[in-house]
Amino acid sequence: MQHTPRRTVSVLTGAVLALGLLAGCGDESRDAGDRPSTPASTPSAADTTTDATTEPTSGPTDDGMGEGAAVPVYYVGDTPGGDRLYREFTRVTGVERLVGAAAAVTQGDPVDPDYRTLWPGGRFTAVTLEADAIVVEVPEESWLEQGRLDRAQAKLAVQQLVYTLQGVVGKRLPVRVQYDGRPASTLLGVTVGAGLKATPELEVLAFVNITEPAEGTGVSDRFVAEGRASSFEATVIWEMQDSAGTVVLEGFAQAEGYMDKLYPWRTEVDASSLPPGDYTFVARTDDPSDGEGPGPTVDTKRITVQ
């Protein structure tokens, strides 16, 4: 009987993990499983094991599981509908990509100050890529319990991990959990079942996300802005604000679609009329309710026009 080899990535004592924002990194090549969050309900227990509508793809410099590569990491941010997931590309060195991505979820420090993680810190003991699943080994039994998180937070934290690891491997593989070498039935109090799956994008992801320009980067007076969104009639509204918060430039971009998931959007920004200096680039969803609804979802990046 022929066995499919497993690839186990363990977190070794003293391993170096360097996590940093990958500036100027484009969207994943094929609308990976990174999606918007509707200002609707918090994911239910059933949602946690619902297949997402599309498969993810790995990052723009992917070589499978290599070191020193870009990884998409999902963090939590505020939206009018409550906490949802935003994606930030990160480069890992010194460890393989699955390990680096998992560590970024549990203890990473996002570059964007608007993002955060719900995880309590620490690292998984191991991450294993198998033919039909991604397997994570928790270091302590307490990781299996809900702990200080409420139910909604625990479910979203689990989705942070699922979306991140699936984005790294480029497949919608279920995530299985082990403790002390044995299958575990829960993670942060969330039922694992046959494996944790990605909740549909519109239930957990923020409706707009900026990929470029990246937080804290310098841009020329003509630059490309892009990301992913699900906005009314596929319209993504953007603006640039100066250090006082005054809008000094504005426009809109057209995404490739909307309603069922997040779609790529892209626009060229002509900032040649602005003096060099620090600005905030803002992208938001269109608000057809004219202020009567919960309001638009927003993502921001601090940039320097050179």
UniProtKB/TrEMBL annotation:
<feature type="domain" description="GerMN">
    <location>
        <begin position="98"/>
        <end position="188"/>
    </location>
</feature>
<protein>
    <submittedName>
        <fullName>Gmad2 immunoglobulin-like domain-containing protein</fullName>
    </submittedName>
</protein>
<feature type="signal peptide">
    <location>
        <begin position="1"/>
        <end position="23"/>
    </location>
</feature>
<feature type="region of interest" description="Disordered">
    <location>
        <begin position="283"/>
        <end position="306"/>
    </location>
</feature>
<dbReference type="InterPro" id="IPR018911">
    <property type="entry name" value="Gmad2_Ig-like_dom"/>
</dbReference>
<feature type="compositionally biased region" description="Low complexity">
    <location>
        <begin position="36"/>
        <end position="61"/>
    </location>
</feature>
<dbReference type="Pfam" id="PF10648">
    <property type="entry name" value="Gmad2"/>
</dbReference>
<dbReference type="InterPro" id="IPR019606">
    <property type="entry name" value="GerMN"/>
</dbReference>
<dbReference type="Pfam" id="PF10646">
    <property type="entry name" value="Germane"/>
</dbReference>
<keyword id="KW-0732">Signal</keyword>
<feature type="region of interest" description="Disordered">
    <location>
        <begin position="27"/>
        <end position="71"/>
    </location>
</feature>
